[in-house]
Amino acid sequence: MSDTVLITGANKGIGFEIARQLGKKGWTILLGARNKQRGLTAVQKLQEEGIVVEWMPIDLNDYETIHFAATNIAKTHPELKVLVNNAGIPGDMSAEPMDTKTSDLQATLDVNVTGNFELIKSFTPILAKNHGRIVNMTIPATGNRFFHPFAYCVSKSALNQMTMMFGNSFKAQHIPVEIFGAVPGGVTTDLNNHMDNRFMRTVEDGAGSVVKLILDHHNHQGKTVVRFGGVKLVKKVIVGH
């Protein structure tokens, strides 16, 4: 039986490419996407490359879809080994803090933080049976002068803190699940309006970094790992001892 991974928001961008690269390595892909047509189109593209894949309807704004997916996967794919929390929204990337609408910040937090929280809680029992991994796609907590969208950065900072606290809790409670954040660097996708400069990476390169983390045998419990290409530039240890 092949290893199985669930990737949210995998109908396009870096999520799709992670699915493609893992699928090429023989993994069974559960492709999470909220839109049926886009999800099935992505599934067809991967199937044409010989990848074993199926669509899972998951909308981070609709907890019922998360709970249904968890129940369904527990029955049909109890071997689930990895959950990649890739789905997210950017918020208004052009707004300065004082110009950000409360509704925009709330919407971004609802998806990038609360939605992922619900996924982690729902899938931990399945992953624990397989000593699995949860990979949260994220960015460093500190912004920089090239990329500092307020709502998005706030939401990812909260996600990093949540990752650390889940990691601490899993360790203390002896829950056999490893959770960590993966930072692939700046990747040119539609989330950032296809930002392109000398610091940006291709989707293939960014996804490749994440795939290497998924397949490594190092313990990253509760950490946020920054890895560009095959070289680990920063490994931020934030788990309490």
TrEMBL record:
Keywords: NADP, Oxidoreductase
Cell division among keywords: no
Superkingdom of the organism of origin: Bacteria
Pfam families: adh_short (PF00106)
Keyword Transmembrane helix among UniProt keywords: no
Signal peptide coordinates: none
Family: Belongs to the short-chain dehydrogenases/reductases (SDR) family.
Stored PANTHER family: CARBONYL REDUCTASE 1-RELATED, CHAIN DEHYDROGENASE FAMILY PROTEIN, PUTATIVE (AFU_ORTHOLOGUE AFUA_3G15350)-RELATED
Name this polypeptide is given: SDR family NAD(P)-dependent oxidoreductase
Native source organism of the sequence: Secundilactobacillus hailunensis
